[in-house]
């Protein structure tokens, strides 16, 4: 029996999840979606190694622009965050809504980020047009993506800090959700997550899906968390600098 997360009662709620393929052809282009498969539309290395490589590269790019995420092209941020998509799938039905929303926002950012245009310029245009907080805007997509990034960062951080002998990941997953995503989700979504949180995989199963041993996680995990934190903070700084805030 899995240990219940404190403060997280289990309501009676029926949920189902239809797995989606990692890559589905759509309009001649590759449309991608999260699934329980460890690999997305990429190959080479384990899932955690690919996440680490993606955000190490983004962190290096931030260094090149003196930490100013507004100077990055949206595709640079979107491509790095794309590496996180399979991790949502590995968490199962509990995070299906969050995973679907994350995929949609990353896909939208990639489609609406022309070469030669920076995130800062696109946000400035949204603000000038009075559309910064409207559905479909680059500004809104970037903020939603950053929240998803912060959820993954918080979960991985909790995973690394937890007792390796404790197989249940209910508490780490719930605490990360409660801190980073729950305040922005409607009651019905919160209820679905409360119900589904007990279906998250066991620690050993999840680490296997990441392609990590306990020793490897302890060695490389903190560096990946540091890069995720650095990238999130740099993007959030854009919103504060432009007086948009992030609590919407």
UniProtKB/TrEMBL annotation:
GO CC aspect terms: cytosol; membrane
Keyword Signal part of the UniProt annotation: yes
UniProt-listed SUPFAM superfamilies: Glycolipid transfer protein, GLTP
Name assigned to this protein: Glycolipid transfer protein domain-containing protein
Glycolipid transfer protein domain span: 75-211
Keyword Signal: yes
Keywords per UniProt: Signal
Any GO MF annotation of the entry: ceramide 1-phosphate transfer activity
Signal sequence coordinates: 1-25
Pfam families per UniProt: GLTP
């Amino acid at each position: 029996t899995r240990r219940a997360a404190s403060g997280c009662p289990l309501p009676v709620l029926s949920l189902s999840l239809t797995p989606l393929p990692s890559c589905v052809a759509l309009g001649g282009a590759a449309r991608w979606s999260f699934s329980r498969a460890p690999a997305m539309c990429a190959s080479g290395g384990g899932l955690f190694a690919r996440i680490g490589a993606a955000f190490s590269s983004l962190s290096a790019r931030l260094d090149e622009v003196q930490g100013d995420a507004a100077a990055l092209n949206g595709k640079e941020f979107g491509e790095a965050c794309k590496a996180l998509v399979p991790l949502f799938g590995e968490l199962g039905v509990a995070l299906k809504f969050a995973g679907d929303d994350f995929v949609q926002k990353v896909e939208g950012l990639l489609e609406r980020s022309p070469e030669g245009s920076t995130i800062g310029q696109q946000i400035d245009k949204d603000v000038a047009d009075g559309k910064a907080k409207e559905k479909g805007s680059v500004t809104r997509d970037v903020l939603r993506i950053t929240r998803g990034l912060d959820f993954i960062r918080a979960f991985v951080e909790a995973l690394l800090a937890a007792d390796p002998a404790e197989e249940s990941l209910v508490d780490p997953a719930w605490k990360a959700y409660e801190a980073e995503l729950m305040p922005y989700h409607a009651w019905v979504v919160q209820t679905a997550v409360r119900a589904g949180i007990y279906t998250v995989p066991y620690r050993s199963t999840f680490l296997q899906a990441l392609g990590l041993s306990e020793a490897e996680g302890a060695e490389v995990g903190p560096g990946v968390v540091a890069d995720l934190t650095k990238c999130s903070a740099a993007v959030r700084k854009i919103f504060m600098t432009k007086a948009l805030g992030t609590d919407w």
